[in-house]
Design a protein that fits this description.
heterodimer, A: alpha/beta, FAD/NAD(P)-binding domain, Enolase-like, domain 1, five-stranded parallel β-sheet, 26 strands, B: Alpha-Beta Plaits, Alpha-Beta Plaits, 2 domains, 20% strand
């Protein structure tokens, strides 16, 4: 009898797992997908929001693709319970599905600040396609838009909101913007840039309530003046979708605790992506990384192991990049490690910043900010990632970076970082092209 | 597979590769749009070209959320413009720093080996860039290491 794989969640992790199962398996298996939504990519929603792509472009698999992949689907359904002793799950329509192994990849949902009025009509989240449709339908040229939260999610849609012709105010509880992505110096640089591009930024303000005033929204804060908005977008964080696993016997801390094979404490139950607490590449400690690249790698590693391979994940590296009004800001690894040795450089006139963190000869984290039209910004983004990912000892070339933190490329090349990187693959073999697998049309 | 073999000892820093590359990639003679880049060493007395090694992992390709990066007939990782939305995930996934982003088209671009007839190799007058059968390699690390170390040593660095 063919192996029965159950994939719970049709996001990045689930899709990568299914693709990898089909790439790796020796004998055809049965794959069943349970997904609350039609599979699409959250990464591209900002480009749907600014109307540069059609809605059809966001889907990562159509029904036809899934059929071709021989995936049985339960789309629009949620798993309500997992019975790891019986190797079966229950869906919200009462269907029972038995499996030989299963992958938990249910991702995250947007969380709203718990204030009165947070659920009023006209107050949006931006996380799912449905929520993106809601924002797209609401924002008009000249709309006053207030985004609550100045973190990664806000910043991914900031350009889109501006390009729709809206007037934008960003409010943040923390003393600075992007508190979980860049340090204070970087935040100051980005904030100055935003203000110069017509965005109003208010930090250190606590939202108290949202009131409806004849269809418009009035935001009241614990201190300072009120704001009036046509559209409010709550980008106040995300939470993992794990409630349904309660009492299942699957070990959950911040996420489902997984080993290097993406296996949970239940050997035939795997987890990947936002819901998985795997190994952080730099610290070696368990961590939840709710980012796209981690979901991809987790999904691929889980898929390979479900297909009978023995693939270990080295650990996932925190990487984040946002572009706002043609200014790139990116950070990697342990960029906020207060104990690390730091080499930094700031060129205010060029809006450029580099912060490099070291443990001995190895780079363990980095922050980079620079204009998108400076080619070296984009190239340095990659090379910093390569230095942190490879942990290549910089030796005496660290001294080169101390003299000029902006000349990352010379140190990268001289330390033979490419030699360290070239043999590295996630699955222990060359990657295959996405080819005929579900690609947006 | 054929690869771009780089021999930095032969590079004169003439930048013809950058000019040829930018013309092939974008139709403009504009080194800023080139995906092969020449770096100077030792105070502009020696040079080395650097470009995508077409790595086995294809970090750019596996990172792309919409499958917009594929493997071409000649084995190059290639961006499909119609599918690329410009999210920049590939620029942060590629650990070699060889992804590029065009702010005017809002698309990522990279070395695609010009479909099997690389303009840089044609343009190079000294055969510092050759398109030959081989494996991806770190062609310029040793060359650069020696020169950077020399500069550091002679100017008081360790």
């Amino acid at each position: 009898m063919p192996t029965r794989h159950l994939i719970i969640g049709g996001g990045t992790a689930g899709m990568n797992a299914m693709r990898t199962i089909r790439e790796e398996e020796r004998e055809p298996s049965e794959i069943t997908l349970v997904s609350a939504e039609k599979p699409y990519s959250r990464m591209v929603l900002p480009y749907y929001l600014d109307r540069s792509i059609a809605e059809s472009h966001v889907y990562t698999a159509t029904a036809a693709h899934l059929l071709k992949w021989k995936v049985k689907t339960h789309i629009g359904r949620r798993v309500t319970a997992l019975d790891v002793k019986a190797n079966a799950c229950m869906l919200d329509d009462g269907t029972r599905i038995e499996y030989d192994d299963c992958l938990i990849a249910t991702g995250s949902s947007a969380a709203r600040a718990p204030v009165p009025g947070a659920d009023l009509p006209g107050v949006h989240s931006f996380w799912t396609l449905e929520e993106a449709r809601g924002v797209l339908a609401s924002v008009k040229p000249g709309s006053q838009v207030v985004m609550v939260g100045a973190g990664f999610i806000s910043f991914t849609i900031l350009n889109s909101i501006l390009s729709l012709g809206a007037k934008l105010t960003v409010v943040e509880l923390a003393p600075r913007i992007l508190p979980r992505m860049v340090d204070a110096t970087g935040a100051e640089l980005v904030e100055g840039w935003l203000k110069a591009h017509g965005v109003t930024v208010r930090t250190n303000v606590k939202l108290a309530r949202i009131e409806d005033v004849k269809g418009r929204k009035r935001l009241k804060f614990s201190a300072g003046p009120d704001l009036t908005a046509d559209v409010v977008i709550m980008a106040t964080g995300i939470r993992t979708n794990l409630g349904w696993l309660k009492d299942s016997g699957v070990d959950v801390r911040q996420g489902v605790v997984v080993d290097a094979h993406q296996r949970s404490n239940v050997p035939n139950v795997y987890a990947a992506g936002d819901v998985a607490e795997g190994r952080d590449l730099i610290s070696g400690q368990p961590a939840v990384h709710a980012i796209e690249p981690t979901a991809q790698e987790h999904g691929r590693v889980a898929g390979a192991n479900m297909a009978g391979k023995d693939v270990r994940h080295k650990g996932s590296l925190i990487v984040n990049i946002v572009e706002v009004c043609h200014l790139d800001a990116a950070s990697f690894g342990a960029w906020d490690d207060g104990k690390a040795e730091v080499i930094s450089g700031l060129k205010k006139d060029r809006n450029a910043y580099r912060k490099l963190l070291f443990s001995g000869e190895r780079m363990t984290g980095a922050i980079i900010i620079g204009r998108s039209n400076d080619i070296w910004t984009t190239n340095d983004v990659g090379m910093l990632k390569g230095l942190v990912q490879s942990g290549q000892p910089l030796g005496r070339f660290k001294e080169h970076l101390r003299r000029n933190p902006f000349d990352v490329k010379t140190a990268f090349i001289a330390a033979k970082t490419a030699s360290a990187l070239l043999p590295e693959t996630v699955l222990g073999r060359p990657s295959l092209a996405p080819g005929d697998s579900p690609v947006a049309v | 597979m054929k690869v771009l073999q780089l021999t930095p000892e032969r590079c004169t820093g003439c930048l013809r590769c950058e000019i040829a590359c930018s013309y092939m990639q974008t139709g403009a003679y504009q080194p800023a749009k080139s995906v092969i880049r020449v770096s100077p060493f030792e105070g502009h007395t020696s040079y080395a070209p650097y470009t995508c090694p077409q790595c086995a992992e294809g970090w750019c390709m596996t990172a792309c959320p919409v499958g917009a990066i594929t493997i071409s007939a000649v084995g190059a990782k290639d961006v499909l413009d119609d599918l690329c939305v410009g999210c920049k995930l590939c620029t942060i996934a590629c650990p070699y720093g060889t992804m590029f982003y065009d702010t005017s088209t809002r698309k990522a671009f990279k070395c695609n080996l010009c479909g099997g007839d690389p303009a840089c190799a044609h343009a190079c007058p000294t055969a510092a860039i050759e398109y030959v059968e081989g494996m991806p390699a770190d062609w310029i690390g040793d060359f650069a290491g020696e020169r950077v170390a020399h500069v550091l040593a002679t100017t008081g660095g360790r």
